[in-house]
Each structure stands twice: as structure tokens, then as C-alpha cells.
Amino acid sequence: MSEYQYYEFQAIDRDLTQADMNTLRSISTRAEITSTSFTNHYEWGDLKADPLQLLEEYFDAFVYVANWGTRRFCLRLPKGLLEYKELKANLPNESAWVERTAKYFLIGFENTNEEQDEWDDGTGWMGSLVSLRSDLLRDDLRCLYLGWLLCVQNGEIPDEQSEPPVPAGLGRLSTSLKSLIEFLSIDEDLVAAAAANSAPLDLGPSRQDLDSWIRNLPANEKNVLLITAISESGNRWKNELLRRFNRENKPPPSQAPPAARRTAAELLSAARACAKRRTRRAEAARIREVEQRKAKEEAQRANYLDQLAKREDAVWNVVIAFVQQRQPNGYDQAIRLLIDLRDLAIRQGHETEFRAKIEDLRATHAAKASFIKRLIKADF
Questions:
Q1: Considering the domain boundaries, does residue 214 fall inside one?
Q2: d(CA 245, CA 205)
Q3: What pTM value is reported for the model?
């Protein structure tokens, strides 16, 4: 297979109409099309449409995977819920970007990693990533900041440029955020360095907080909320409600003065320091594991030799019986037992007696050249 490309689109806020599905079918006769999705892969050729135009017109999320290492994840967001300036501060360049259309913001994350060894057919990523859209609509901007870090990683941010405001919760990432890091091959040491300045994650409003806030809303607004909840599919209404609660009830996140924010160069330096600490921890853990394994093996060996001591004479007889078979396999088994008996002799301080028995064995079986070679090779 010379090339492979995987395209998956998903509609969230509204289902596709039959007319929509017919139009999409005219683009591809092979695609799997449902009322909420469009999925296709190509071994030869390409999608006969602009993915971003399809995203803008029909869908809310888009995943692309190519076997040469390119990966893209894009989202369509309704205008009015997020500020373009805020989006642009976090998504400034090729690896993480934002575009404005008449009704929407289109945001994208993309990276190419040619060193990926495992085959990836693209399936499964949409399910792992799509919840990031709901996070954004609830004002969780962590995925945007990860996009900025990807731009830093790829050398698209000037060294002296300061980071955007660091969102809370970078030290406690959700499963979908971890999937985004894996999908885009974002340096985990860079994420760890950035998380050092991230506040703890707010667990969200309690039921009591929501109850008090909703009770104080005007009656007409409550009616609108109920109608919206009943008439709209998906979670958009819920996300917008939570976003409104957060905006009205919580002070804006504290923003450190620019001098206190780290530059791209400082973050890269901190990431290198994180990598060194991680390497040292991994080496220390490896050494501990080796020592523990060695101690366990030595304890098992000591226990085995203790049991061998109880039947030492019988084992010598077994050695002689193996030698007398005049078979290569018997010689090998005899040598293995002699090694055990030598270790036992050393442990007991009976090395002189052991050497004497070996000399007797040599003299008795001197004609067995193959056995004598094995004795010499085992250093007896």
C-alpha cells in the first residue's frame, strides 16, 4: 500500500438532513454516511472536496489520519460563545490555527510525525477527541493551550514570545486531553513543564449552586431554557448554560503580568529539565528493579541450595548415573547438577571436598572425552 488516508466527520449540534446526505453521497459513493457522520478511507486517490468546507457546512468535528504521519483534528464552534482574540492567542500558527467564517469559528490542530512505527487506520480517534468540543463550550480552554505548546514544539513561536494565560488543570488532564497529546505527538515533558504554573482544576458548580442561580433567573428565561432543552438535540444547550453560569458567578481567572509569564524559550528549557529528571527517575527505578530482581533470585537460589543440601549424596549419585549414560543430553544434565553442587560447596565452605570428588569423577571417566570437554568448559 503506497498511501492511506482516513477521513471522519461528525455532526453534533444537529443531524444531517436527507438532502445533506444526498449531497455528501455525490462526493463519495464509497463513504459510510449516517445522519451524524461521514467516514471514508483511501488507498489511492483523495477526498473530492475541501474538508474544511464540509466541516463548515455540515459537521462539528473532523479527524484526518495519513500513513505518512500527518494527523489533523478540527472543530466547528458557534460564534458568540468564545472570543476570537482568545482563540487566536492560543492558536497562532500552522500547527494550531483558527479561522472565522460567517457563522462559525473553525479551529484546527495538526502535526506530522514520520517516526510513528505502529500502523494507525484512524478509527477510534474521533470518539477519543470529540468531547473536547463540549469542554471548549464550557470554557475549558486546556486543549487550546496544548495547541500553543504544539506550535512551540514545532518552532513556530519566537523564543522571546510569552505564553498565553495558563488554564487551570494542566496537571490533571482528562482522557480526551491525553488522547489529543498522543494524537498530535505533543512532547509530554513540555506539557509537564507548562503544568507547573497551572492552578488546580475547578470541579465545577455544585447542585446547590446551580439551584440558587436558576431560582433567581427571570421566569421568561427559565421558559426559554426548558424549551431549548426539549427541542434541541445534543448537549449544546447544556454547555452554553454551564458557560453562562461560570461567566456570571466566577471571577475571571487571574492573569499574571507579562513579565511573570514564561517565554517559549523558557518553556523549552524547562521541558528539557523535566526530561532529564524523568530520565533520572526512570534510571533509578530501573536500578531498583534490577536490585530487587537480583535479591529475589538470590533468595530463591539460596532456598534451592538449602533443599539441595538435604539430598546432596543422592544428587551425586544422579550425576554419576547421567555420566554413565554416555549421551550428550545426560552429560549436559550432569554438568548442571555439578554447578549446583559447586555453589553448595562454596556456600558451606566444603570446596576442598568438592574438588576431590571432581578429580575422582575425572579419573573414573577419563575415557569419556565429550564429558571431560564439558567439565573443562564449566571450569571444573
A1: no
A2: 8
A3: 0.74
